[in-house]
Amino acid sequence: MARQRQSEKKAQEQFNLKDLNIMDLGKDVGLTLMRDNTYANVDNWLPTGIPQYDAIMGGGIPFGRVTEVFGKKASGKSTFALQLSKKASELGVVTIWIDVEGTSDVRRLEQLGVDTDKVFAIQPKFNKKKNMYDPLTVESIADEIGGLLEKFRNISVDIPLLIIWDSIAATTSQLEIDQDITSQQPGIKAKALAKFFNRVTPLINGSNTALVAINQARDVMGGSFGFGDNIDSPGGKALEHVVSLQLLVNAVNANDFNQIKPNSTSNYGSYTGHNMQVETKKSKVSRPQQKAKAFIASEHELADGTEINGFNPDYIIIREAINLKIIESRGAWKVYVTDNGEELKMYEKDWYPYFIHNQNPEIIKEITAKVYYKLFPKEYPPFENTIIKVDDEFAMDKLKEYYANKNETPVESTESENGTDSE
């Protein structure tokens, strides 16, 4: 009888999960609901100025995160980093180059449109006693970044900071320098990088700082036989795990852009640029395994004699507008129909100087906005930036107009056959 009463008492006292109030429970134990947690949010994006890249990256380069850009030689890694510097300076973002490879040549930066008055550089310092430059090491870069982030934080937490490290592969660890060249101790650099990211990543997470690490690609033994990827980046497992966005860049279609130059000795023409394909090998901020292409020019000559270099935004917009069929192909003509129903028709070679020389600002604004709208049919994430404002960027007012009139969609959303695609 006593046992029966105890059993009935336990049944009455048994906790009923249906009566559990999750919000009250969170308050009682000091926990935050996931819906109210903003720590992992990306509050600011740096648009690259290349909409098809931004589309596969979730909106551009995310702040408060680490991004790795890796690829083989001459694929366009450093030029892409210079493009990021250019956009950052235009949007008021402080840029710091950690120049291990000596790529931040002032003349080259200015040629590609970078405002060198708005870019800082950390370079090897000259040692007068040794009569040589002391190399930048993984350890010294960790000290530099840690000190800089603390100094900027003391000035203001609202200063957006873009740090470009060019490159991981060219940076040695202090132990590698100190040890004998015949030493066989493996994994020295990987261990140094693990310590680097253990120190630096917590300072970047949740801040208004974006770290973009440039890296080289290396062939993977066995990859060509179907066992995983053919290439990866050096740096150990710590780098793989810490990055939120890992971008693989490749040079493609270089021969398609060869031009016969006056002093050329080749019947096939001279190199004047290539398509740089970007693939999101890993992404915590967008859908991974997507690809997009854009043209990097190198003294590429247009039909009217204009020469372009680097990522020319007007050239890229026109090519993407054609890829997305915003500008339609009708035989040899490329035709655009304006929002007012007017038809503009010319050869493809004539569209590029038309855009670059801004011959009709309203038409150019329409086409630019439609490219962004087609690549970002639901929303354009940088519009939600808390610090880096993009509203005054060219054609953004027109893009907002298209979003406001979604019921009267100017173009249908599709993916580009040659620009943005996915696997």
Task: Walk me through the structure.
The structure is a single chain. By secondary structure, the chain is of the alpha/beta class. Helix 12 (361-375) packs across helix 13. 33% of the residues lie in helices and 22% in strands. It has helices at 2-13, 22-29, 51-57, 77-90, 106-111, 138-155, 174-178, 188-204, 236-242, 313-323, 348-356, 361-375, 396-404, and strands at residues 45-46, 61-62, 66-71, 94-99, 119-122, 125-127, 132-134, 161-166, 209-216, 218-219, 231-232, 245-252, 273-283, 290-301, 307-310, 328-330, 333-337, 343-347, 420-422. The strands form 5 sheets. Strands 3, 4, 5, 8, 9, 12, 13, 14, 15 and 19 form a 10-stranded mixed sheet that branches. A 3-stranded antiparallel sheet has the order 16-17-18.
List the keywords.
single chain, 423 residues, three-stranded antiparallel sheet, 13 helices, 33% helix
What portion of residues is helical?
A: 25-40%
Low-confidence stretches: 413-418
Largest sheet: 10 strands, mixed
What's the mean pLDDT score? Answer: 87
Counting DSSP E segments of at least 2 residues, the number of strands comes to 19
Beta-strand portion reads: 15-25%
Radius of gyration: 26 Å
Provide a count of the helices: 13
The coarse silhouette is globular
Based on helices, strands and strand pairing, what is the structural class?
A: alpha/beta
